[in-house]
Amino acid sequence: MAVKTRWVVTHACGDEVEHDLSARPADRRAGYARWLSGRDCTDCWRAQRDGNRAEERAAWIAGRRAEEQQAAAAWAEQYRMPPLSGPEKILDWGERCRHQLVAAAYKALVVEGPLTEGRWEEVEAQARTVDRAGWWLDQREAAPVDLPELLEAATDADRSTENPY
Ligand SMILES: [Zn+2]
Hints:
Layout (H helix, E strand, L loop, with lengths): L5 E5 L5 E5 L8 H9 L4 H37 L9 H24 L5 H13 L3 H6 L8 H7 L12
Antiparallel strand pairs: 1-2
The chain binds zinc ion (ZN).
Zinc ion binds next to helix 2.
């Protein structure tokens, strides 16, 4: 009787999978089937691998976010931007949005645009008065060149009265 070529292996993950071992010499099949039984089946191995990738990606995003947060905090300090007000859970996010928008606006309007430094200082002064985190969050999709107009449209509700700036 010939040694069978199709082996049903119970993998480490618990799944039963039929393997075609005809490509292996007859005297190696049992050993190979045993080796296979010590490992997860292909589907489970893939799922595990994809899960690891998702975790790595999440860790990468968290790292990037922490870097941006640091940059936003350093920037706020340098340009005397006030702490934002609003629900605790959106404060950091609002700070990142403010940093990104104002920095991008400076680049678009002054570095690459027609705005003078003097006029920009006015824009920046106005940006200092708007300290509601939600306002900055709402502008996160805005075109940077629109910042002066957006700031003009901000209302007293977007400014806290005890704002010292
Ligand atoms: Zn499996």
